Amino acid sequence: MSLPPPLQTGDQVAIIATARCISKAEIQPAIDLLKSWGLKPILGSSIGLQEHQFAGSDQERAKDFQDQLDHPDIKAIWCARGGYGSVRLIDHIDFSSLKKQPKWIIGYSDVTAIHLHLQSLSFASLHAQMALGIEIKSSSTSIQLQKVLFGDDASIYSKNIHPLQKNGVASGEIIGGNLSVLYSILGSSSTPSFEGKILFLEDLDEYLYHIDRMMQSLKRSGVLKVIKGLIVGGMTDMNDNTIPFGKTAEETISEAVQDYNYPVCFHFPAGHTHANLPLIFGKVARLEVSSSQIQLTY
């Protein structure tokens, strides 16, 4: 799988809204950040548009995305925010220009729908913080993003040791994203192959029983059987019913993979967490889970 070339000083980076509406003022810190890196931010036509919750109609958002994909001077595309709506664009987009000019598509959460579709087409992408809110994330969030975009070492070392982790070493392309979005994509034409890959999962504001439902779906569909490793990021702000489900999200995930002999780590610094470090989807990585630290190296 070919990766986009490193960015150079003066390169143009488009910021677009594939889902929920957003104003320029809300992403001004991200605009300033790009400028501080020597890059030229270009605001897509979807920024500032609104149709109910969305950043304009599906057609308007898709056109903006397509324009930035096809424009030869745009070297990367940064999704402004999540929410919901990215999946509605996929069937309206022609991604073939990425064959001639690979460029990073950057985002997470709702953008998981785009990441999975890109991997089904054998295009790499970047699971990383949106433009919105990057100023309130850890300094490592923006530092690591800059490193990846400019072609520097993107390895991650975490001390978040968890009692349910499974130690071991695995190599493979990283795939995945938001568990709820991945669950909704399974069985569609955007479903990539998971075989031999390292799966990353994270989620926000989900009910604990639904985490179990989704993990059972991944297990019964064969996804959990064919992967080489599992990275679990933030399972943030989980909800429970009046009668408790009885297990944490981590316990539920651990139970779902207990029959498989591959490394599993939890609380990895990616997803809806203070440190949302970038993961290069589609690039072969080495995951090492030990009793002292978690290493993800490329």
TrEMBL record:
PANTHER family: MURAMOYLTETRAPEPTIDE CARBOXYPEPTIDASE (PTHR30237), MUREIN TETRAPEPTIDE CARBOXYPEPTIDASE (PTHR30237:SF2). Keywords: Carboxypeptidase, Hydrolase, Protease, Serine protease. The keyword Hydrolase applies. The keyword Hydrolase applies. Transmembrane segments: none annotated. Belongs to the peptidase S66 family. The active site is at S109 (nucleophile), E202 (charge relay system), H272 (charge relay system). It comes from the Bacteria. This is Muramoyltetrapeptide carboxypeptidase LdcA. GO terms for molecular function: carboxypeptidase activity; serine-type peptidase activity. InterPro entries: Carboxypeptidase_A_C_sf, Class_I_gatase-like, LdcA_N, Peptidase_S66_N, Peptidase_S66C, S66_fam. Residues 171-287 form the LD-carboxypeptidase C-terminal domain. The lineage of its organism: Bacteria, Pseudomonadati, Bacteroidota, Flavobacteriia, Flavobacteriales.
